[in-house]
Design a protein that fits this description.
The protein is of the alpha/beta class. Strand 1 (36-39), helix 2 (46-50) and strand 2 form a beta-alpha-beta unit. The protein contains ten helices and eight strands.
Protein backbone atom coordinates (compact mmCIF):
# COMPACT_ATOMS: atom_id res chain seq x y z
CA UNK A 1 0.00 0.00 0.00
CA UNK A 2 1.35 3.45 -0.92
CA UNK A 3 0.71 6.91 0.48
CA UNK A 4 -1.01 7.77 -2.81
CA UNK A 5 -3.53 4.95 -2.36
CA UNK A 6 -4.71 6.51 0.89
CA UNK A 7 -4.35 10.10 -0.36
CA UNK A 8 -2.03 10.80 2.55
CA UNK A 9 -1.03 14.39 3.13
CA UNK A 10 2.09 14.84 5.24
CA UNK A 11 2.27 17.49 7.91
CA UNK A 12 4.22 20.60 6.87
CA UNK A 13 6.06 20.34 10.19
CA UNK A 14 9.00 17.99 10.63
CA UNK A 15 7.87 17.05 14.13
CA UNK A 16 9.97 14.17 15.46
CA UNK A 17 8.25 10.78 15.29
CA UNK A 18 5.74 11.80 12.61
CA UNK A 19 3.69 8.89 11.29
CA UNK A 20 3.05 9.89 7.67
CA UNK A 21 5.18 7.11 6.18
CA UNK A 22 3.64 4.50 8.46
CA UNK A 23 0.03 5.45 7.78
CA UNK A 24 -0.46 3.02 4.87
CA UNK A 25 0.27 0.24 7.39
CA UNK A 26 -1.60 1.81 10.30
CA UNK A 27 -4.87 2.75 8.63
CA UNK A 28 -5.88 -0.85 7.76
CA UNK A 29 -5.30 -1.76 11.43
CA UNK A 30 -7.56 1.00 12.75
CA UNK A 31 -11.31 0.46 13.30
CA UNK A 32 -13.27 0.95 10.05
CA UNK A 33 -15.85 3.13 11.81
CA UNK A 34 -14.68 5.88 14.17
CA UNK A 35 -16.95 8.32 15.94
CA UNK A 36 -14.45 10.58 17.74
CA UNK A 37 -10.74 9.99 17.23
CA UNK A 38 -8.66 10.96 20.27
CA UNK A 39 -5.07 11.66 19.19
CA UNK A 40 -3.39 11.80 22.59
CA UNK A 41 0.14 12.71 21.41
CA UNK A 42 -0.85 14.58 18.26
CA UNK A 43 2.55 16.04 17.33
CA UNK A 44 2.54 17.41 13.78
CA UNK A 45 -1.02 16.28 13.10
CA UNK A 46 -0.51 13.46 10.60
CA UNK A 47 -3.14 11.26 12.25
CA UNK A 48 -5.94 13.83 12.42
CA UNK A 49 -5.26 14.87 8.83
CA UNK A 50 -5.40 11.37 7.37
CA UNK A 51 -7.60 9.03 9.43
CA UNK A 52 -11.35 9.24 8.77
CA UNK A 53 -13.63 9.98 11.73
CA UNK A 54 -16.74 12.04 12.51
CA UNK A 55 -14.78 14.32 14.85
CA UNK A 56 -11.32 14.67 16.35
CA UNK A 57 -9.67 15.66 19.61
CA UNK A 58 -6.01 16.57 19.14
CA UNK A 59 -3.91 16.79 22.28
CA UNK A 60 -0.22 17.27 22.93
CA UNK A 61 1.72 18.39 25.98
CA UNK A 62 3.76 20.63 23.66
CA UNK A 63 1.45 23.63 23.44
CA UNK A 64 3.67 25.22 20.77
CA UNK A 65 2.90 22.52 18.21
CA UNK A 66 -0.79 22.53 19.22
CA UNK A 67 -0.79 26.31 18.78
CA UNK A 68 0.50 26.00 15.22
CA UNK A 69 -2.05 23.29 14.38
CA UNK A 70 -4.86 25.41 15.78
CA UNK A 71 -3.66 28.44 13.79
CA UNK A 72 -3.69 26.32 10.63
CA UNK A 73 -7.19 25.14 11.50
CA UNK A 74 -8.71 28.53 12.24
CA UNK A 75 -6.98 30.92 9.82
CA UNK A 76 -7.73 31.34 6.12
CA UNK A 77 -4.94 29.80 4.04
CA UNK A 78 -4.41 33.05 2.12
CA UNK A 79 -3.94 34.91 5.39
CA UNK A 80 -1.52 32.24 6.61
CA UNK A 81 0.59 32.54 3.47
CA UNK A 82 0.45 36.31 3.59
CA UNK A 83 1.72 36.37 7.18
CA UNK A 84 4.51 33.92 6.34
CA UNK A 85 5.71 36.01 3.39
CA UNK A 86 5.56 39.21 5.44
CA UNK A 87 7.91 37.55 7.96
CA UNK A 88 10.19 36.18 5.21
CA UNK A 89 10.49 39.63 3.62
CA UNK A 90 10.90 41.49 6.92
CA UNK A 91 13.90 39.35 7.91
CA UNK A 92 15.18 38.69 4.36
CA UNK A 93 15.07 34.98 5.08
CA UNK A 94 16.89 32.62 2.75
CA UNK A 95 19.01 29.48 2.86
CA UNK A 96 22.11 31.69 3.24
CA UNK A 97 21.02 34.57 5.51
CA UNK A 98 21.87 33.40 9.01
CA UNK A 99 21.71 36.93 10.44
CA UNK A 100 18.08 37.30 9.38
CA UNK A 101 17.26 33.92 10.89
CA UNK A 102 18.90 34.85 14.19
CA UNK A 103 17.01 38.16 14.31
CA UNK A 104 13.74 36.32 13.75
CA UNK A 105 14.60 33.75 16.39
CA UNK A 106 15.37 36.50 18.90
CA UNK A 107 12.20 38.40 18.09
CA UNK A 108 10.11 35.24 18.29
CA UNK A 109 11.47 34.39 21.74
CA UNK A 110 10.58 37.92 22.89
CA UNK A 111 7.13 38.04 21.26
CA UNK A 112 5.90 34.53 20.58
CA UNK A 113 3.34 33.93 17.84
CA UNK A 114 2.38 30.72 16.05
CA UNK A 115 3.18 31.77 12.48
CA UNK A 116 6.47 33.39 13.49
CA UNK A 117 7.38 30.03 15.01
CA UNK A 118 6.30 28.09 11.94
CA UNK A 119 8.31 30.36 9.64
CA UNK A 120 11.29 30.01 11.96
CA UNK A 121 11.06 26.22 11.77
CA UNK A 122 11.09 26.43 7.97
CA UNK A 123 14.59 27.94 8.08
CA UNK A 124 15.94 25.86 10.97
CA UNK A 125 18.40 22.96 10.88
CA UNK A 126 16.56 19.90 9.55
CA UNK A 127 13.31 21.85 10.07
CA UNK A 128 13.55 20.84 13.72
CA UNK A 129 11.25 21.94 16.52
CA UNK A 130 13.37 22.41 19.65
CA UNK A 131 13.31 24.55 22.79
CA UNK A 132 15.53 25.03 25.82
CA UNK A 133 14.48 24.75 29.46
CA UNK A 134 13.26 28.36 29.41
CA UNK A 135 10.96 27.43 26.51
CA UNK A 136 12.93 29.60 24.12
CA UNK A 137 13.33 28.26 20.62
CA UNK A 138 16.99 27.32 20.14
CA UNK A 139 17.33 25.28 16.92
CA UNK A 140 20.27 26.56 14.82
CA UNK A 141 20.08 27.89 11.27
CA UNK A 142 19.57 25.38 8.44
CA UNK A 143 22.34 26.79 6.25
CA UNK A 144 21.99 26.00 2.52
CA UNK A 145 19.20 23.49 3.18
CA UNK A 146 16.10 24.65 5.03
CA UNK A 147 13.70 27.20 3.53
CA UNK A 148 10.03 27.78 2.73
CA UNK A 149 10.17 26.11 -0.67
CA UNK A 150 7.41 25.82 -3.25
CA UNK A 151 7.11 22.14 -2.32
CA UNK A 152 6.67 22.98 1.36
CA UNK A 153 4.16 25.70 0.46
CA UNK A 154 2.11 23.18 -1.54
CA UNK A 155 2.19 20.73 1.36
CA UNK A 156 1.09 23.43 3.77
CA UNK A 157 -1.85 24.36 1.56
CA UNK A 158 -2.97 20.74 1.23
CA UNK A 159 -2.60 20.14 4.96
CA UNK A 160 -4.53 23.26 5.97
CA UNK A 161 -7.32 22.46 3.52
CA UNK A 162 -7.56 18.93 4.92
CA UNK A 163 -7.65 20.13 8.55
CA UNK A 164 -10.34 22.66 7.80
CA UNK A 165 -12.60 19.93 6.39
CA UNK A 166 -12.64 18.26 9.81
CA UNK A 167 -14.37 18.89 13.15
CA UNK A 168 -11.38 19.24 15.50
CA UNK A 169 -10.91 20.44 19.06
CA UNK A 170 -7.43 21.06 20.45
CA UNK A 171 -5.92 20.76 23.91
CA UNK A 172 -2.52 20.69 25.57
CA UNK A 173 -2.60 18.42 28.59
CA UNK A 174 -0.56 15.60 30.06
CA UNK A 175 -1.88 12.30 28.73
CA UNK A 176 -3.46 11.01 31.95
CA UNK A 177 -5.38 14.21 32.67
CA UNK A 178 -6.57 14.32 29.06
CA UNK A 179 -7.73 10.71 28.91
CA UNK A 180 -9.35 10.58 32.34
CA UNK A 181 -11.42 13.71 31.65
CA UNK A 182 -13.15 12.32 28.54
CA UNK A 183 -16.66 10.95 28.24
CA UNK A 184 -16.12 8.18 25.70
CA UNK A 185 -19.01 6.97 23.54
CA UNK A 186 -19.64 4.04 21.23
CA UNK A 187 -17.18 3.76 18.33
CA UNK A 188 -14.77 6.28 19.84
CA UNK A 189 -11.12 5.43 19.21
CA UNK A 190 -7.98 6.42 21.10
CA UNK A 191 -4.65 6.55 19.26
CA UNK A 192 -1.43 6.96 21.22
CA UNK A 193 2.06 7.63 19.92
CA UNK A 194 3.92 8.50 23.14
CA UNK A 195 7.62 9.23 23.53
CA UNK A 196 9.48 5.95 23.27
CA UNK A 197 11.10 4.81 26.48
CA UNK A 198 14.15 3.23 24.82
CA UNK A 199 14.88 6.03 22.34
CA UNK A 200 15.76 9.65 22.96
CA UNK A 201 14.39 12.53 20.94
CA UNK A 202 14.22 16.23 21.66
CA UNK A 203 10.65 15.76 22.94
CA UNK A 204 11.46 13.34 25.77
CA UNK A 205 14.96 14.01 27.07
CA UNK A 206 13.81 16.34 29.86
CA UNK A 207 16.03 19.19 28.63
CA UNK A 208 13.58 21.11 26.46
CA UNK A 209 11.26 22.70 28.99
CA UNK A 210 8.82 19.78 28.85
CA UNK A 211 8.38 16.76 31.10
CA UNK A 212 10.72 13.90 30.30
CA UNK A 213 9.41 10.37 29.67
CA UNK A 214 10.47 7.83 32.26
CA UNK A 215 9.46 4.36 33.49
CA UNK A 216 6.86 6.04 35.72
CA UNK A 217 5.11 7.65 32.74
CA UNK A 218 5.31 4.39 30.80
CA UNK A 219 3.65 2.42 33.60
CA UNK A 220 1.03 5.10 34.18
CA UNK A 221 0.11 5.00 30.50
CA UNK A 222 -0.39 1.23 30.59
CA UNK A 223 -2.56 1.51 33.70
CA UNK A 224 -4.85 3.91 31.88
CA UNK A 225 -4.95 1.71 28.78
CA UNK A 226 -6.01 -1.22 30.94
CA UNK A 227 -8.75 0.96 32.41
CA UNK A 228 -9.93 2.00 28.94
CA UNK A 229 -9.93 -1.61 27.80
CA UNK A 230 -12.12 -2.65 30.71
CA UNK A 231 -14.45 0.25 29.89
CA UNK A 232 -14.86 -0.98 26.31
CA UNK A 233 -12.91 1.84 24.66
CA UNK A 234 -10.91 0.85 21.59
CA UNK A 235 -7.30 2.01 21.46
CA UNK A 236 -4.12 1.56 19.47
CA UNK A 237 -0.61 2.23 20.73
CA UNK A 238 2.40 2.94 18.52
CA UNK A 239 5.78 2.17 20.04
CA UNK A 240 9.22 0.66 19.57
CA UNK A 241 9.73 -2.66 21.28
CA UNK A 242 13.42 -2.98 20.42
CA UNK A 243 16.00 -0.35 19.48
CA UNK A 244 19.79 -0.56 19.14
CA UNK A 245 19.90 -3.77 21.15
CA UNK A 246 17.65 -2.40 23.91
CA UNK A 247 14.29 -3.98 24.66
CA UNK A 248 11.32 -2.30 26.26
CA UNK A 249 10.58 -5.06 28.75
CA UNK A 250 7.62 -3.22 30.26
CA UNK A 251 6.02 -2.99 26.84
CA UNK A 252 6.87 -6.62 26.07
CA UNK A 253 5.03 -7.74 29.20
CA UNK A 254 2.07 -5.44 28.61
CA UNK A 255 1.75 -6.47 24.95
CA UNK A 256 1.12 -10.12 25.86
CA UNK A 257 -2.45 -9.24 26.82
CA UNK A 258 -3.33 -7.51 23.54
CA UNK A 259 -2.84 -7.78 19.77
CA UNK A 260 0.69 -7.03 18.57
CA UNK A 261 1.26 -5.93 14.98
CA UNK A 262 4.82 -5.59 13.66
CA UNK A 263 5.39 -2.69 11.26
CA UNK A 264 7.91 -2.43 8.46
CA UNK A 265 9.71 0.85 8.95
CA UNK A 266 13.22 2.20 9.52
CA UNK A 267 14.11 5.54 11.05
CA UNK A 268 16.62 6.17 8.29
CA UNK A 269 15.76 9.86 8.14
CA UNK A 270 15.39 10.53 11.85
CA UNK A 271 17.94 12.99 13.18
CA UNK A 272 18.00 11.45 16.68
CA UNK A 273 19.18 8.00 15.63
CA UNK A 274 22.44 6.74 14.21
CA UNK A 275 21.82 3.01 13.78
CA UNK A 276 18.28 2.25 12.69
CA UNK A 277 18.49 -1.32 11.46
CA UNK A 278 17.60 -2.86 14.84
CA UNK A 279 14.47 -0.79 15.57
CA UNK A 280 11.27 -2.82 15.75
CA UNK A 281 8.22 -0.62 15.58
CA UNK A 282 4.87 -2.06 16.54
CA UNK A 283 1.20 -1.20 16.84
CA UNK A 284 -0.59 -2.66 19.85
CA UNK A 285 -4.39 -2.84 19.76
CA UNK A 286 -7.05 -4.00 22.22
CA UNK A 287 -9.51 -5.08 19.52
Amino acid sequence: MTQEKYNIISSPMNYIGGKAKLLPQLIPLFPPKINTLYDVFAGGGNIIANVSAKSYKANDLNDFVIGILEAFYRKDINNILSEIYVIINKYSLSKENQDGFLRLRSDYNANKSQLMLYTLICYSFNYQFRFNNNLDYNTPFGHNKSHFSDKLKARLIQFVERLQMRDISFSSQFFDKFLLSQNFKADDFVYLDPPYLITTGNYNDGNRGFKDWTVDEEKRLYEILEHLDKSGVKWALSNVIEHKGKQNLILSEFSQHYNLHHLNYSYANSSHNTNRSSSKEILLTNY
